[in-house]
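Q: Hi! Curious about what PTS glucitol/sorbitol transporter subunit IIC looks like structurally. Here's the sequence.
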Amino acid sequence: MDILSRFAEHFIGIFQAGGETFMGFVTGIIPLIVCLMTFVSAIIKMVGEDKVNSFMKKITDNIILRYSIFPLVAVFVLANPMCYSFIRFAREKYKPAVYDSMVSFVHPITGLFPHANGGELFVYLGIAEGFRKLGMSQGGLAIRYFIAGLIVILIRGIVTEKLTIYLANRQGVDLDAIDNGGEND
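A: Let's find out. The predicted structure is below.
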């Protein structure tokens, strides 16, 4: 009987832990995301949706800016995971690569700007502590992470874009038609 009792306690404990995690989301990240979404929407409405879309289109039409400055601004301003909402400004054919760039940048930015991805901060701080124990500069580490991150997201973005276009062409999908509102059959 003791074994059944302990099994039942541990079994329900899994769901209690899940409930606690869910409540953490309800009281933590969900309100933050809602506030950020509201703030960004308000800024877009104040500036004007056409002006914002036009500006973002200019940035995302340039291959270098699309996979460097655009993800940097999104991650810095909105942090993870809200930064992914910026993907809406990219053309459909670039969205997979823009996402790849953004998701690849949420860790490298953390050393200089911890607000960008609080969930990854513990990883960076663990590595930084090792540098501190070796007598090396944590600031230098943060800058190196940041620069390496920018280089990596640029490369990943370009490679992912080329792969997306290659695979779409191979399957007969006209990505330009999707951007213009229709898809070739």
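A: A fun detail: Residues 16 and 117 are 26 Å apart (CA to CA).
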